[in-house]
Amino acid sequence: MSILFEKKVLALETSCDETAVAILKGFGGVLFHSILSQADVHAQYGGVVPEVASRSHLEVLPSLVQKALQTIPMDEIDLYAATVGPGLASALMVGAYFAQAMALGVGKPFAAVNHIEGHLLSPFFGQENVPPHIALIVSGGHTLLLDVHGVGDYVLLGKTQDDAAGEAFDKVAKFLGLPYPGGVQIDALAKQGNPALYSFPRSMLHSGDLNFSFSGLKTAIRVFLKQDNQRAALPDLCASFQEAIVDVLTAKTLRAALACSRTLIAVSGGVSSNSRLQTKLADACLAKGIALRFAESALRTDNALMIAFAAIQRINAGLRTPNEIMPNLELESLCKIR
Ligand code: KG4
Ligand code: ZN
User: Fold this and answer.
1) pLDDT of residue 322
2) Which of 26, 57, 214, 223 is the most exposed place for a label (fewest CB within 10 A)?
3) pLDDT in tens, 67-99
4) Ligand 1: residues within 6 Å at CB?
5) Over the range 25-36, which residues count as b (16 or more CB within 10 Å of their CB) and which as e?
6) Domains by residue range for the chain, with CATH
7) Residue 87, SS3 per DSSP
């Protein structure tokens, strides 16, 4: 058994609007897990305001860490980890410097973690082995398709050329007068609507590659709303918009699995909670004999357990990470991209 099963990692995640702290033992022993969402604070502005985010992180992080260390004393922590990018620069700094300072203060190692790799590995939380698979990462900031050979060994197959899937959900929700973050509201309203009533664009569905584009869809909804004298019902609009996003995500993910001869698809990030995406992907995978897994629901939106898990997985794979904070960090720069 790997010596890492006994290691305790204290991880911080402050890349956007969640202040999260976790202590993980080995690959799946949850000793502490807490997420404070700032969504209510940012809702009044209709989106995340970086300065407000970093100030809120600063306000709550010390007491949250203190609470974690009341559960597991500091002298039992073997490793400190934090998200160093991608994310909002001023927000990343709070968690990353805090974790680095703790590590330095007690002479323990610090592991810098790429937020996207945190999401990417989250469906395998709790296990040492990460099997080869196709990864679809769909969050508020990212939409990526990767062929995963193993930890730190990824082939980038496609990504969004403009808005991320979650960003499209949130922006369209704003047009529709729904509160931020809008993905959950659209998902709920869509359940009572007709997904086939309006035919919104499935951008890049037939582009011949595995990239995505969602800004055209967003514009199409905006134009539709301006011209809509009939006052379309909100559930029908939500269902039809959601169907357009889900159709493209499902089709391209399946295409990626077939092209790479993978028999497993793993989906992560906040948008992986979308009920229609889950159903459509499940149906498509069943038809092709492909296994499908999602991160457990608490690990889909931003959290520190996935950061601790990614740190342990990278150490297990013998990979090192740079220490600086990199707001524009791409997955490529921390991982071996073939
Ligand atoms: O992974 P995450 O916390 O963000 C980033 O790392 O960027 O995901 C947040 C995103 C938001 O855009 C939110 O609207 C979306 O996930 N989201 C959903 C659902 N739940 C969360 N989108 C669609 N359907 C949902 N059920
Ligand atoms: Zn995220």
Assistant:
1) 67
2) 223
3) 999 999 999 999 999 999 999 999 999 999 999
4) 16, 139-141, 166, 169-170, 181-184, 187, 269-271, 273-274, 301-302
5) bbbeeebbbbbb
6) 3-125+299-332 (3.30.420.40), 133-294 (3.30.420.40)
7) coil
